[in-house]
Amino acid sequence: MKTNRKLSKEEIESFGAELDAVRAETLAKVGEEDAKYIRDIIQLCRDYELLGRELLKAEGQNPAAWLKGTWSLGIAKILENMEIGHNIMHGQYDFMNDPETHSQTYEWDTASHSDGWRHSHNYLHHTYTNIVGKDRDLGYGILRLTDDEPWKPHHLLQPISNTALSLLFEYGVALHDLETDRIKDGEKELTLEELVPVLKKIFAQAAKDYLYFPATAGLNAIPVLTGNVAANLMRNVWAHAIIFCGHFTSDAETFKQEEVIDESRGAWYLRQLKGSSNLTGDWWFHILTGNLSHQIEHHLFPDIPAWRYAEMAPKVRAICEKYGQHYNTGSFVKQYGEVLKRIFRYSLPDSLFGKNSLTIAQSALRPAQGDALTG
Predict the structure, then answer these.
(1) H or E element, residue 330
(2) Which residue of 161, 241, 323, 370 has the fewest CB atoms within a 10 Å radius of its CB?
(3) Domain assignment of residue 374, yes or no
(4) Is the confidence at residue 5, as pLDDT, over 50?
(5) Residue 192 confidence (pLDDT)
């Protein structure tokens, strides 16, 4: 695990002030160029979806056409999920005052209900990033990814659980805000008020993909059905892999609740940096990740249009180097390999390894010379 230089309280606040300056500089540029970008991406997504659906409906019994149609539809679903839906619902394009691109009115093409996602992701995850017991995205209530969580025998199965979560990721996200893990442990009771909107969205999405579109395809109903299933699997596996690479590599740290009491803005920035991982790739790769390949910048600046993270990244990296902080980045193969290693490691009892250094951010969050963090 890469080490980070201990920062004094003053250095932490200076670190945060420099990142605030990067944020302000970028926000000053946001406007028509960003609006054009997201409109172009939405049109590109529609073009891919139209091509995919037409190929499956008209020529789905031809294997080559089925593959091309399924691939095109899968790309459309990835674009809609990652670069469009995720970023719009973060409020990145609210400045346009357009219901089609506004965070409070957008409903995405997936089983997850937007209102529930905005609460579990925008609020809980981005406020309490990688804080054990507060950030429910840390393992999604299924996986053990830190030795701060007690090991239980069922964790031995988490490589299998992770595979299932990957394939069914849209449903895992859909059920996430219900806190099914707490319901199972008897810590919470499920109410109809919570359950009904979730089930309505799940069933509506399934009816669209698995009933409506096949029913309109006549003799090609089966190719359309299987194409929709495969396209959704493409989107699920891709989204799961990119999101996990951004949060659960070996160098992505977790934090105890007592470490972030009275957390200042500078310390919040530092926690976002230390709990995040970036991915290297070309321009198309970044688009398909929804620019979550720049997860560090996304955690630092979640409401800035994500396509601008590429221009912010060198400035953020330079600030990290100035303050002796590790900027965690690497190829998809490297980062995803670390994710799988971490999932396997924490599926086993800690007694086999001793105290592991992957988990607790002991060093750079705490100021030097024993200074206390205050807000």
Answers:
(1) strand 329-330
(2) 370
(3) no
(4) yes
(5) 86
Burial 122-132 (b: 16+ CB within 10 A, else e): bebbbebbbbb
Please check whether residue 3 lies inside any domain of the structure: no
Q: Please tell me the total count of domains within the chain.
A: 1
pLDDT (mean) for 262-272:
94
Q: Give domain status of residue 362, yes or no.
A: no
**Terminal C-alpha separation, the chain:** 29
**Which token pair is 351?**
């007694």
Helices 32-59 and 221-247 sit at what angle, rounded to 10 degrees? Answer: 140
Would you give the DSSP letter of residue 220?
G
Closest to 76 (Cα-Cα) out of 47, 110, 118, 104: 47
75 is a domain residue: yes
Which residue range is the domain that position 134 belongs to?
Answer: 9-345
Backbone phi, psi, residue 131, to 5°: -90, 120
Looking at residue 368, what is its pLDDT? 42
Q: Please give the model's pTM, rounded to 2 decimal places.
A: 0.90
Quickly state the pLDDT bin for 134 (edges 50, 70, 90): confident
